[in-house]
Design a protein that fits this description.
It contains 15 helices and 18 strands. It is α+β, with helices and mostly antiparallel strands and 476 residues long. The structure holds flavin-adenine dinucleotide.
C-alpha cells in the first residue's frame, strides 16, 4: 500500500501553469477529491485546485459517519439508503485503514424495560430493512438487547429511563483525512493537486487563479459544495439553488460518559436523533443540529442555541448531566443541500446529488453526502466524458484501493501534505482542535516552530499565525 505524498505547492503551481489538462476540478473537499481520482484513473489529464486547505469546507465538519442513514428510511428514501450502503461496503474494502466499522446503540425511552411496543417494533422493522439493504453478514446484524446490557456499553447512561434498546452496525471515518488520502491517491495516478489556489474567473479554455496563473483545461468541474452557485455565477446564471443547513458538533471527555459504542439518541424536543460517537481513547462527540443557515459561508459559528439543543438532547439520557464547561471542542459546518422539496425543516431535505452542465460547458456536482462521494464522482466524470467527447471510458474506482496516510506530524504535513498554517495541521492533518481544544492550544506553538522553520517565517509571521489559529479555534 502506498503512502500519500503530495508534491510541494511550488511544483504543483509550475505544472498548473505549464501543462494542458483534460479536466480541472475546482474544490478540494471529498467530492472534488473523488472526481479527480475518478477522472485520472480513467486516463484523463487531471488537475484539482482548492481555494483554502484540502477539506477545509464541509468535508472536515461532518458527523464523520459512513452510513446509509437510518432516518432516510423513515423518509422513504430507499434508493438513497441503498446507494449509500453499497458505498459503505466499498469504502470499508477500499480504505480499511481510514474507515472502520462501529456499533451503534439505540435506546428507546421508557422505564424498567417497558416501552411503547409499537415504537420498538417500528425500530426493529427499520433495522431489519437496513441490514437487508446493506447486505450485512450475520455477525453484524442488529439485535435487541436486554436493558441490563446497556450499562456495559455506555456507563453514564441512565438505564432507568430506557424501555428498550437495539444495537446495529455502521461505519465511521475522519472526513478530512479521508479527503486528503483520496487527493493523494489521485496524485499517485498522475493528477496535479494544489491547495490555496482559488479560481476567480472562468474563460474558454480554462480557469484563472487568484495568483494570476491560468490553468488550461478542456473541461471544468465545479465541486465547490456550498460555494457551487458562486462558481456557477462566474460565467452563467446559476440554474439550481442550494439551501444551506447548519450542523454543529460538541466534544466531551469520554471519562464522564463511558461510551464504548456510538449511540443514537432520540431528541425529545423535535423528534430528530443525535449521534454520540466515541473518538480515540478519551473523547466523545455529539451532533448534530440541522437548521437553515443564511450567514457567511467562511465563518460558521457555534451559537448558544446550538449548544443548548445538543446538551438538552444528551442530558435527557445521562445520570450525570453535562454543562457548557464540560465541552472540550466543537465544530460547525453547512450542508450543501439541493433546493427541492418545499419543507420548512432542512432535516427533511434530500441528501441526493445531481450533475448539471451549463450552456458554457461547466459541469457542476451539487448536493450529496460524504458516504456517496465515489458514486457522485462517477456520475460527474460520466458527464465530463461527454464534454470531452470520449464515449467509452470506464469508471474503475469501485474496487480501487485508497492510499494510506503517514502518521500525522507537523513536519510530514508540511513536507508531503501541503500544510502551510497551524490550523492545517491541528484541525485537519491531526484534528486535535475539534476534540480537545485546550490540548491543541498547548501544541500550537510547537507546530508553529516546525512550520516556521520549514517555511521561513519571521518572528512576526509566527506570531500572526498563532493569533489566527487561537482565534479560529476559539470561534468554532
Ligand atoms: C453537520 C454535518 C454533518 C454531516 N454528516 C455527514 C455524515 O455523517 N455522513 C455523510 O455521508 N455526510 C455527512 N454530511 C455531508 C457531507 O459532509 C458533505 O456532503 C460533504 O462533505 C460535502 O463535500 P464537498 O466536497 O461537496 O464540499 P466541501 O467539503 O465544502 O468542499 C468544497 C471546497 O470547494 C472549495 N472552493 C470553494 N470555492 C472555490 C473556488 N472558487 N476555487 C477553488 N476552490 C473553491 C472550498 O474551499 C471547499 O474546500 C454532513 C454535513 C454536515 C454539514
Amino acid at each position: 500500500m502506498s503512502i500519500v505524498a503530495l508534491p510541494a505547492r511550488s511544483e504543483a503551481q509550475r505544472r498548473l501553469a505549464e501543462e494542458t489538462f483534460d479536466v480541472v476540478v475546482v474544490g478540494g473537499g471529498i467530492t472534488g477529491a473523488g472526481v479527480a481520482l475518478d477522472a485520472v484513473t480513467r486516463g484523463f489529464r487531471t488537475a484539482i485546485v482548492e481555494a483554502r486547505d484540502w477539506a477545509s469546507g464541509t468535508s472536515s465538519k461532518s458527523s464523520k459517519l459512513v452510513h446509509g442513514g437510518l432516518r432516510y428510511l423513515q423518509q422513504k428514501e430507499f434508493g438513497l439508503v441503498g446507494e449509500a450502503l453499497k458505498e459503505r461496503t466499498r469504502l470499508l474494502a477500499n480504505a480499511p485503514h481510514l474507515v472502520t466499522r462501529m456499533a451503534f446503540l439505540i435506546p428507546l425511552f421508557g422505564a424498567a424495560g417497558v416501552t411503547n411496543e409499537a415504537l420498538a417494533k417500528g425500530y426493529s422493522a427499520a433495522l431489519t430493512l437496513y441490514d437487508k439493504i446493506g447486505r450485512v453478514d450475520s455477525a453484524m446484524r442488529h439485535r435487541r438487547i436486554p436493558i441490563d446490557e446497556v450499562h456495559a456499553l455506555v456507563a453514564g447512561i441512565d438505564i432507568e429511563r430506557i424501555g428498550a434498546a437495539f444495537v446495529y452496525h455502521d461505519a465511521q471515518a475522519e472526513d478530512a483525512r479521508l479527503t486528503l488520502a483520496i487527493v493523494g491517491t489521485a496524485v499517485r495516478y498522475g493528477a496535479v493537486a494544489c491547495n490555496y489556489a482559488r479560481v476567480v474567473a472562468r474563460a474558454p479554455g480554462g480557469v484563472a487563479l487568484d495568483d494570476g496563473r491560468f490553468v488550461r483545461a478542456r473541461c471544468v468541474v465545479n465541486a465547490t459544495g456550498i460555494w457551487a452557485t458562486e462558481v456557477m455565477a462566474l460565467d452563467d446564471e446559476p440554474t439550481h439553488r442550494l439551501r444551506p443547513a447548519k450542523g454543529v458538533h460538541l466534544s466531551f471527555d469520554n471519562a464522564r460518559i463511558g461510551a464504548s459504542v456510538a449511540v443514537v439518541l432520540p431528541a425529545r424536543r423535535d423528534k430528530r436523533s443525535v449521534f454520540l460517537v466515541p473518538h480515540g481513547l478519551h473523547q466523545v462527540y455529539l451532533g448534530t443540529t440541522d437548521t437553515p443557515y443564511e450567514g457567511p459561508l467562511d465563518r460558521i459559528l457555534v451559537d448558544p442555541e446550538d449548544t443548548e439543543y445538543l446538551l438538552s438532547a444528551l442530558n435527557d439520557w445521562l445520570v450525570d448531566p453535562m454543562t457548557e464547561t464540560d465541552i472540550t471542542g466543537s465544530w460547525a459546518g453547512v450542508r450543501p443541500l439541493l433546493e427541492g422539496v418545499r419543507s420548512a425543516r432542512t432535516a427533511d431535505l434530500s441528501r441526493r446529488h445531481t450533475v448539471v452542465r451549463s450552456s458554457s460547458g461547466l459541469v457542476s456536482i451539487l448536493g450529496g453526502k460524504l458516504t456517496t462521494y465515489r458514486l457522485m464522482a462517477e456520475d460527474t466524470v460520466d458527464e465530463v466524458a461527454k464534454v470531452l467527447d470520449k464515449k467509452r471510458t470506464q469508471c474503475v474506482t469501485a474496487n480501487l484501493a485508497i492510499d494510506e496516510l503517514a502518521p500525522p506530524t507537523a513536519a510530514w504535513a508540511v513536507d508531503h501534505e501541503q500544510a502551510i498554517t497551524v490550523a492545517d495541521v491541528l484541525e485537519r492533518r491531526c484534528p486535535t482542535t475539534l476534540y480537545d481544544r485546550a490540548r491543541a492550544l498547548v501544541e500550537a506553538p510547537q507546530v508553529a516552530d516546525v512550520l516556521g522553520a520549514k517555511l521561513g517565517w519571521t518572528e512576526a509571521q509566527r506570531a500572526d499565525q498563532l493569533r489566527a489559529f487561537e482565534q479560529s479555534a476559539g470561534m468554532t
